[in-house]
Design brief:
Largest sheet of chain A: 5 strands, antiparallel
CATH architecture of chain A: 4-Layer Sandwich
Strand order of the largest sheet of chain A: 1-2-3-7-4
Helix content of chain A: 10-25%
Oligomer: homotetramer
Distance between the termini of chain A: 22 Å
CATH topology of chain A: Chorismate synthase, AroC fold
Number of strands of chain A: 18
Radius of gyration of chain A: 22 Å
Number of helices of chain A: 8
Chain lengths: 384, 384, 384, 384
């Protein structure tokens, strides 16, 4: 168990180190009949990629994805989709001081303690570079969800003590990508940007958070108990590098609500189905979706790689030493974390859609060229 | 996938409905040689059981556990441990108004939407009664961890707006069980108690939170990425009924820390091993333990079963109606949630101990009666 | 990993030792809406139970199953079904000579080598008594398959050198249960019975085999590669106690067939779907079903518990000794193996049905009493 | 679930189609500290590769493996090992007649029935080309097992009606690779070769079998019941393309053995440990290893791709038609199946070694360059 696998029916398996040859991801369990080309994936990779703005690391990675299998004539075949993304701009030299002297608050020491070794260039396997794999898989998940009228979106709702007012889903869609901070509230985005600049200039970094929301998720998704939607979403989001808190619905605030304040009456919706009158519950009750939007927040602590002198100890020499973590690093994580959070949300929802047999295959295009046949799955869950 | 399975090598499988015949739990992967009798489990069950104080439901359940397998002459044999706990005091009548008219903010509707039916007595499978199984399994996990000098403890650190000052692990051990609120800070406990009483008298309920901590966890436990210690712990804790937020280390507060503020230098500990100078990181870096205590918090929203008139809709009649949720319910969840949170923490840690082959079998007593042999596992991970 | 779990979406988790308190099985992932009472399960348990004839062990076990959860008003609710079967007639005394001196060709030594201990009464966890759990779970699987017009059946096709002629599925249904050997060819059954008697009188036992077949399995079930239908069925059948060979289709005989002899042309069936002209392929091509019957054989070696003097060594005393395995044992396994093989076949097929979303929920009765609702799963795969 | 994942702690995830861009395999859970270069893997790939002799397909694939991750300075790091093998010599044109008219006894129709489409070039995902991934992963497993003094070997023991006499493990090591049939009995190999030639000249193909054996496997490996060593090995071997029978120990022959004939007394071995006096049990009792060699056989039916005119039906036109399967195909499978069977055997054993914590890490070289540290895993199971 390398922690490189996610999902139950829609499965993601990854490999790759920050300064290794390539990153790779295998997506297993993707239904057949989805129109898919590399460009469908590239868009999200570009949102995550380094060097996209002044507030991201300047490492120059084109992050071009190559699909090796599972797609034919532009449509998925239901078999595993293998993808690789080459690493092009690795410069390991700056990491040499830290081979046996761990960087403060990184995974250097813990990886060494677990494995007895580690790939030390650029953080190796512990680097957030790994999330390029997640975003590639997530882009496929999003495209599948879109065929079912399910949308996911995230934006940055806090940087340091600058907090965004609440924004609607439509505002997120419209404004989140307009600025390099990826905050859907333009004035707040500007404030955040100033704050980030300040810390960046000081050689420091700052924490923040990402708000996420999913619209169109049908009621009845999820499972009881250990596999509740919130538990699995919690795992997904806490896996995001630097995540230190996960909340959904009222989140931490629920501590001060009484039952009567938080409880939501039932009414009939426009289709005559019961629906709660509010959404303090974040779209999930008893671990299963109500049909209301799913929303929550992930806190991402400040980047630990900062060009300030800090103290470490060298386990080879037995001596303390002072080092700066030079390199090319982000002053803040949420802006590039937005596509990562969206990917994890999409992967979680899609997995439940498949587990529940709720995918409607007629919404996949599926006209797989001339050799299209009657032998379509009647239900996309066919495609295990 | 019924969501009734937890863990990878130390596995827990559960069944049971609130008003069904019995609750049951199978523990698979328990190492051989642990001294184990029913009394070892009963203690934690008693801490969780209903009717233990004025601030818990008055349902009268002795919650006596019966072990059916996996133990011989007082020691575990390495094979599955089957346990049942009979339900004795089920009174389903009060739930009849809600068969087709869901209680506000319960799982009634979502279970029906998912399964097309549900066991409606006492909430059926969605009831927190299920956690009796978790606590039974957790008690075994705790006993195993104790042989490895690992301890877990939790206490109630917030009820409504009453917040406990920070307490030490020793204070938790000493004071948490002294009062019915299970807050280790006695003065705060009294305040919490008053607040709970107030809401209880109003026919309302109130939210709160549980702080947890583990001491003695060796460094190097956990895994990269999707199976990071924090991700798996996040799943475990978000599965606790009514959990709406999970935090570890600085948690949500990390948003306002700069990298330099949060980063922790390295020093050598008394054994000459590198260790961080602080523990804002909550014992986990890069998804793997540092050897520092693991700690965090879970927010539990207010109980949704309250004897106040609320509105629901009946999907059979198509009519709105007003109902009170009569029954026997808790006015607050954290006090009984303490053993549940401890159980999930213990189960998560133990699973990583087994996955990492870190269990020291010599610390299990293992003198399994007269027929003791040389054929002991050399490593408890032998016992898959 | 105790090896006590089977299946991916329809999951079986077991516990229990031969001379322990009770056997137990949890069935997770059973769709809601199946009419189910204990009598539905009891029939198969009776076919497996000891003492049913002169050629089975005389141990007196009623093997009455008790359902604790997952069923309400006679219908499954989609949540886990917990069941126990009490052990009533355990007499461990006869096993004392073997506590540290393993019985020839039993699991006594290997369990001790793995776990460092074992429950030695009646073979403990290694006893075929465990299969009572499998048959209980299998009975539910069969009932679900029957709603989809899928039937499984097995019979004894060889005992020692007595081989049954081929029989049709209808002959199996009609004749297999008419005789205590469970061979569907009555004349052969009589021959087999004589042979078994002969060995039984000599204090010996004899090997044999079980032929199995499934009718009505839709085409397109299974999966590529590691999870091919034949691979998963192979695991299922090789798990049957005493199994030493698994074959499907031509089985071992395929060694001497040329490609041209074995290849089967395609024709259209009565519905205009392609179907192979023969079934040497055993219903599976490329790991996926063709729609033809699935069939094969499992070889079960002779029971190892025989009342003959044999040599063993005592690892406590370091001495060799001569012992007879007294007790109550079967002279041959296939007759009681028939319901076990059927159970494993049913569990395997059902799991693929759920994985493929092929269950038709309209065929489950699902009128779950008065509180029946519109909130039925649209697809039984809903019931994860 | 695409059937592209194998193993529990040592995990293999694959992708790729016969005529796709590349084959890929991710190995997760490989312990750190194993010396590993591409050449270690290439040897087995060369034994499996097409075009190696006159009795294999003439497709020209160099099958060169590229390692992308998980290895640093020549040693494994404990993180996932990603590998790709490019497809260079795909010629799909000859498969066009079969796009909607399935080849006899291939997976064409069943893949289409399951997925509603398929990659039809060269059999796509159903092609045995996939096993190049298995052999790559297996080569790593073998190297790890060698550090623990465990060896696996296979040879061809039957082609058509030509059966090899029994050979010793040493004979397999010495002779199996001396001839293109990979039969360790040279005279029989010559006979087999003649038989294959005969069928090849006739445009036909022929079945056969592979015998496998593992030496040095410690006692106590495996698990009870559903995960018994024989069950998991059964799954592994039945996944081999064209497998129609799996046997271990006496296999099918056990049908005619009495209990007394088959039972094996116990004696003390040279170390004073109990050991059976024979090995009709094939190294496994009660699903767990005895320490005796593990051995068995896999039957592989004749290749289904033969240049003879056969009948199929076109589901687009609704017409029957006659076609020859032209292309580049093997006249017999066992010779190239030998490294595949060895790979599956090695993967199965290694997985149990990790599950049991039996790997001795001191036997891995593990001097990982200059930055070698004290922070070695104390137990290779550390490396989850």
């Amino acid at each position: 168990m390398n922690g490189n696998e996610f999902g139950r029916l829609f499965r993601v398996t990854t490999y790759g180190e920050s300064h290794g040859d390539a990153m790779g991801v295998t997506v297993s369990g993707c239904p057949a009949g989805l129109e898919l080309v590399e460009e469908d994936i590239q868009g999200d990779l570009d949102r995550r990629k380094p060097g996209q703005s002044m507030i991201t690391t300047s490492r120059g990675e084109p992050d071009e994805v190559k699909i090796h299998s599972g797609v034919q004539d532009g449509y998925t075949t239901g078999t595993p989709i293998g993808m690789t993304i080459q690493n092009k701009d690795a410069r390991s030299g700056k990491y040499e001081p830290f081979i046996t002297a761990p960087r403060p608050s990184h995974g250097d020491f813990t990886y060494s303690a677990k494995f007895g070794t580690r790939n030390w260039g650029g953080g190796g396997r512990s680097s957030a570079r790994e999330t390029v794999n997640w975003v590639a898989a997530g882009a496929i998940a999003k495209k599948l969800l879109a065929t079912q009228d399910i949308q996911v979106k995230a934006h940055v709702n806090q940087i340091g003590d600058v907090v965004s007012p609440d924004v609607s889903f439509e505002e997120m869609l419209e404004h989140a990508e307009e600025n390099e901070v990826r905050c859907a509230h333009p004035e707040t985005a500007a404030e955040m940007r100033d704050l980030i600049n300040k810390y960046q200039e000081e050689g420091d970094s700052i924490g923040g958070s990402v708000y996420f929301e999913a619209q169109g998720v049908p009621r009845g998704l999820g499972a009881p108990r250990f596999d509740s939607f919130s538990a699995r979403l919690g795992q997904a989001m806490m896996a995001v590098p630097a995540a230190s808190a996960f909340e959904f619905g009222l989140g931490r605030e629920a501590r001060t609500y009484t039952g009567f304040e938080r409880n939501e009456d039932w009414m009939f919706d426009e289709n005559g189905d019961p629906t709660p009158v509010g959404n303090d519950h974040g779209g999930i009750q008893g671990g299963i979706t109500t049909g209301q939007p799913i929303y929550g927040e992930v806190t991402l602590h400040a980047p630990t790689s900062i060009p300030k002198t800090q103290t470490t100890v060298d386990w080879e020499t037995g001596e303390e030493k002072q080092e700066k973590v030079i390199g090319r690093h982000d002053p803040v994580l949420p802006p590039r974390g937005v596509p990562v959070v969206e990917a994890m949300l999409a992967l979680t929802i899609l997995d439940y859609m498949l587990l529940s047999g709720r995918m409607n295959p007629d919404r996949l295009d599926g006209k797989v060229g001339e050799y299209d046949t009657d032998y379509h799955p009647r239900n996309p869950a066919n495609i295990e």
